[in-house]
Amino acid sequence: MGQEAPKDKGALSVIIGNETCKLKKAEGETGMRKTAVLGIFLAGTGLLAACSSGEEGEAQAWLEEDWEAINAEADGSDVRMFMWGGDDGLNQYMDEYVIPAVEQEHNIDLERVPIDTEESLQRLLTEKEAGEQEGTMDILWLNGENFRAAKENELLLGSFTEKLPRFNEYIDADSPETTLDFGTPTEGMESPLGKVQFTFIYDTEKIDQPPDTWEELRQWAEDNPGEFTYPEATDFTGNAFLRQLLYDQYGNDAAFASEAFDEEALEENTEPMWDYLNELEGSLWREGQTYPASVEELDRLYSRGEVSMTMGYNEARAESLIRDGTFPETTDTFMLDSGSIGNTHFLTMPFNAGNPAGAMVVMDFLLSPEAQIEKMNPDGWGESSVLDPELLTEEDRRAMEAVDRGASVPSQEELDNAYLPELDADYVGWLEEKWNNEVVQP
């Protein structure tokens, strides 16, 4: 994994029954957000209480069944999985490995449905208002502020991970990587799929030794004007770049992630961050007069040689781009000494999943060592496993360690040592607004 689309900050009018609900429109994205299905929409403001109705559906009854009954119900069924479709490696993994495997092993016909943000959001809200107890989505890729909004507005089926045998066998259920999604408690409502960390990507022909610190990065940009930039803050990767820098303002202490979002404290303590970005601006590509709208746009600048670095919220993303010829063979990856933020992305079920039994069987399959090891293959998706190595058999652990993820991917030891937990989802919107006010507008 782990990847961004056009921005539109207008309001999305969702017509539900005889009412029109005004929602904040989701920003398009790829990258590790990859969660645009529900958007960032008035989380916690009682949206659904104001413009929806409907009784609990029969889908929740499957949360009380035992695994034998769930498996039997899933046999021979159809499952629709709504997920981000903007990565060729991810799509290849799903289409060429997962879909055939679940058909062979579980007699399930799995359909991958690429997400359209507005359509998926409107569909889910419309079904909620109409009281439809059998919806069109069985599995949903969901993360961050979108998960928070869906949870607070009761759009999810409920807690189910304790039903998944492989979750219980291979996942550290007490780890913050599992229990929190951008600061929001998952409470068993999401099954982990993969995890990623933020890294910089550079051309070794142009840079002998990449920077180790933020100050060295600023100095390198000053010495090499026009060869560095970052995506704007509304892009997921650009926002992650800012969150990484924000961590530095708080001493790169992992405890920062556990603190409640405090806007007043941020306003008082982040002036050095904005000073840094404004000082950096004159050394950026086009002198910071414009910023790439997405990480894909930054990648194009890098592949054409206009800049010497790009970045991404996926430590393995450079490898597939090297292999398909998009990036030069001299491309490598680095992390700053201060650390690398990481997060887990998840799968869930909507409140009215039409086939919850089939959905749970598919999500359990995706937590099998075989599926997670295949996911690490750099010729496909190349993404990190969510399984706890300490809970694997010796054979599976050796098989996982034997995967050659490619020369550009940092070692697991390097990744583990650099790991910093992701911040609360509230930081994302705050950084978008502040970056525009403090960096773009002046």
Topology record:
Elements: E1 11-16, E2 19-24, H1 47-51, H2 67-74, E3 78-83, H3 88-106, E4 109-114, H4 117-130, E5 139-142, H5 144-152, H6 165-170, H7 176-179, E6 180-181, E7 184-185, E8 191-203, H8 214-223, H9 236-249, H10 263-269, H11 271-281, H12 295-303, E9 309-313, H13 317-323, E10 331-334, E11 340-348, H14 356-365, H15 369-375, H16 394-401, H17 412-418, E12 419-421, H18 426-440
Parallel strand pairs: 3-4, 3-5, 11-12
Antiparallel strand pairs: 1-2, 5-11, 6-7, 8-9, 8-10, 8-11
Helix pairs in contact: 2-14, 9-18
InterPro entries: SBP, YnjB
Organism: Sinobaca qinghaiensis
Protein name: Putative spermidine/putrescine transport system substrate-binding protein
Can you characterise this structure?
The protein is an alpha/beta fold. It has two domains: 11-195 and 343-409, D-Maltodextrin-Binding Protein, domain 2, CATH 3.40.190.10; 197-340 and 424-440, 3-Layer(aba) Sandwich (D-Maltodextrin-Binding Protein, domain 2). It has 18 helices and twelve strands. β6 (180-181) and β7 (184-185) form a beta hairpin.
Would you kindly provide a brief summary of this structure?
The protein has 442 residues and is an alpha/beta fold.
**Stretches with pLDDT under 50, minimum 5 residues:** 1-55
Helix content: 25-40%
Order of helices and strands: EEHHEHEHEHHHEEEHHHHHEHEEHHHHEH
CATH architecture of the largest domain: 3-Layer(aba) Sandwich
